[in-house]
Amino acid sequence: MLHLVMELRWLLAGAAMLGLITGFIAKRVSPPKKR
Q1: How many CB atoms lie within 10 A of CB 4?
Q2: 3-state per-residue secondary structure call for the chain
Q3: First to last CA, the chain
Q4: What percent of the chain has pLDDT over 70?
């Protein structure tokens, strides 16, 4: 049971980091249109 919780936590952390990195890259690559 504990192993499953740890696995889920790692998966969630990985997804969050991936989303953050993709968002950062998208912001840097795409020109700021709103500003």
Answers
A1: 8
A2: CHHHHHHHHHHHHHHHHHHHHHHHHHHHHCCCCCC
A3: 49
A4: 91
Rounded distance between C-alpha atoms, residue 22 and residue 16, angstroms: 10
- Using CA atoms, how far residue 27 sits from 2, 14, 19, 31, in Å, is 38, 20, 12, 7
Distance from C-alpha of 5 to C-alpha of 23, rounded to nearest angstrom:
27
CA distances from 25 to 7, 10, 14, 17, 19 (A): 27, 22, 16, 12, 10
pTM here is 0.58
Structure tokens at 34: 């709103």
